[in-house]
Design a protein that fits this description.
alpha/beta, nine-stranded mixed sheet, two-stranded antiparallel ribbon, 22 helices, about 50% helix, about 10% strand
């Protein structure tokens, strides 16, 4: 797994370099830095797609046919002319003026800044939606500084990361560059695992997709990957529309989409304020709506919202100042209103919205009675990337095209205790955990074939003919043996060989740990649902009817329905363990008192 924190740290060092050696403000150098990151990531994507195109490529006279822009368009990817490719820029001569380089307009270039500006213009020529979006202010930087930045950004981690990496780094940089701006504008990156979960449950195939709070475009990127993985061309199958009030975010969204070969219509500025404007006139027209809107926004003017309509269940509570004091249910109403007669919506929402009262409750009741609420998933804390966004959240799913078997039902999943801890401030779902949660939804929908395919994937990945439980025991034994052998061989090795042998065993142990993790996830799923029969699992999931939801006062909080899982008996006698802890505490207190007496005595001897 990519150490994204390490990558950010390395990239931030470059931002410090800019700040120290240029006289620009944070607003002036934020986008140029992101532009260079865009170039490096675009080049990584370019080389990956180029390799795919060259597989089985016809040749003439022993020479493989060169790739063309049309080849990349067919793969929903961005084509980069030679002069816009990162390695070309990285390997330029120090003396640009003597190299005789000519820009796209036929003028001689005398500095590295001009060459980078030209690269940005060449890329804009390849993507109509990027025209006027990419930064072209690199002549503001000295050649030496720009060359150093290009070198620093030549990080191989970009070859391995996926999803909305630009958005993730953007949020990190923005919180470093201008934390107050980030806070005021509600700018925050939607974690890849949340985006991917939304896309996987919505399952976009073709049609109109709207994200009315599109940020850096993660929903579009992940949806494009999902459609392309199914064998279709995302640009042919899907039409992407976005609204984003913050101009910086909209620029990044367009850059992000272009890197992934996607085209879309993104509107920004005041006309794209979704509270007051349906900028694309898509009310009732969308096959899919996906979003991570700002939570708990207050001071939203009520009258423009009512005039803008898209409120099928009425207005949320309005205060004496004629403002909506919490806009969560404005967003929820809008998302529903955008859907066509078979449309699906998936979005992130503050956990408090599942149980809020007054007008919110009235809207929620009307929404539930439509039969179009589909799935609600509670998410653990610390899923958002910055510590400021540690609010608990839920994923909501609506589906106007539900099959009759589940028309009057809602699936509740409480995943607050199911996640992988990346570090002490950040949690996420692993790929296998996302598949497991998705599998519960499949079974709820009666799609047992997809569940069976996942179980087969586990078995094939693990090479497993035994039960998953038996396999876990075997892998644990193999791990213990690996660690035992590692200690012996490292201890007995000469000084020159110790590091090499330790590194070899570290790799083998890491691989075995990964195998153990996969086996545990397989067992987690199989012990609950076997070969593919849905059942409510205490503390995890519950299918509730509309009548049951009414009995719970129209709550959509998963924990209300799934209950609490029983605590497993760890085999430890409580009274014995408490007595042991008490003895340890008394011993530590005694040691502490002795130490304090010794310190006090020493200080007296020193005359202190």
């Amino acid at each position: 797994m990519i150490n994204i924190r390490k990558l950010e740290s390395e990239l931030w060092e470059s931002a410090d370099l800019l700040r120290a050696e240029s006289k620009l403000t944070s607003n002036q150098y934020c986008m140029p830095v992101l532009g260079l990151i865009f170039l490096r990531y675009a080049y990584s994507r370019y080389k990956m797609v180029e390799a795919e195109i060259l597989k089985g490529r016809p040749s003439r006279g022993g020479r493989v046919m060169p790739v063309e822009a049309s080849d990349f368009a067919a793969k929903s990817a961005l084509y980069l002319p030679k002069e816009a490719q990162y390695d070309y820029l990285l390997n330029l001569l120090d003396d640009i003026a003597s190299a005789g380089l000519i820009n796209k307009d036929g003028h001689k270039m005398n500095s590295l800044g001009e060459v980078v500006n030209n690269a940005m213009q060449l890329i804009e020529d390849q993507s109509e939606q990027l025209v006027g979006v990419l930064p072209k202010s690199y002549t503001d930087f000295s050649g030496d500084l720009l060359a150093e930045l290009l070198r620093i950004f030549n990080n191989k981690a970009f070859d391995e990361v996926g999803g909305d990496i630009l958005g993730q780094i953007y949020e990190f940089f923005l919180n470093k560059f201008a934390p107050q701006v980030a806070s005021d504008d509600g700018v925050f990156f939607t974690p890849k695992s949340l985006v991917k979960m939304i896309v996987n449950i919505i399952e976009p195939t073709s049609g109109v997709l709207l994200d009315p709070a599109c940020g850096s475009g993660g929903m579009f990127v992940q949806s494009g990957d999902f459609v392309n993985a199914s064998g279709m061309n995302a640009n042919s199958a899907m039409t992407f529309y976005g609204q984003e009030k913050t101009e910086y975010n909209a620029q990044l969204c367009l850059m992000n989409m272009a890197v992934h070969g996607l085209t879309g219509v993104i509107k920004s500025g005041d006309e794209a304020n979704t509270f007051y404007h349906d900028a694309h006139n898509l009310d009732g027209c969308c096959d899919y709506v996906m979003a991570n809107p700002p939570f708990n926004v207050d001071k939203v003017k009520a009258e423009p919202c009512e005039n803008a309509r898209r409120l099928p269940f009425g207005m949320p509570s309005v205060n004496d100042k004629k403002e909506v004091s919490n806009a969560n249910y404005l967003w929820i109403s809008y998302f529903y209103s955008y859907l066509n007669e078979t449309g699906r919506a998936g979005f992130v929402m503050a956990a408090s919205a599942t149980d809020s009262q007054n007008k919110d409750k009235d809207i929620r009741e009307k929404l539930i009675k439509t039969g179009h609420m589909d799935v609600v998933i509670s998410v653990a804390n610390k899923f958002f990337y910055t510590s400021k966004k540690s609010l608990p959240c839920s994923l909501w799913f609506m589906n106007k095209g539900k099959n009759e078997n589940i028309k009057d039902k809602v699936l509740f999943i409480d995943a607050r205790n199911y996640y992988t801890m990346v570090d002490k401030t950040w949690n996420e779902w692993s790929e296998w955990q996302m598949k497991n949660l998705n599998a519960i939804v499949w079974l709820y929908r009666g799609e047992t074939d997809k569940y069976a395919a996942l179980i087969d994937e586990y078995r094939n990945t693990l090479g497993c003919t035994l039960s998953f439980e038996e396999l876990i025991c075997i892998i644990n034994d193999e791990l213990k043996e690996l660690k035992r052998r590692a200690k012996i061989e490292v201890d007995n090795a000469g000084r020159k060989d110790k590091k090499r042998i330790q590194a070899e065993y570290d790799d083998m142990i890491a691989s075995k740990n990964e195998e153990l993790t996969i086996a545990k996830e397989a067992n987690w799923l199989y012990e609950k649902f076997g070969e593919g029969e849905y059942q409510d699992v205490l503390g995890l999931c519950k299918i509730a009817t509309i009548s049951e939801i009414e009995e719970k006062n129209w709550s959509l909080t998963p924990g209300v329905y799934v209950g609490v899982a029983p605590v497993e008996d760890d085999g430890v006698n409580f009274e014995e363990r408490m007595a042991e802890i008490h003895r340890e505490l008394l011993y530590l207190q005694k040691e502490s008192n002795n130490l304090m007496n010794t310190i006090s005595k020493n200080m007296k001897e020193m005359g202190l």
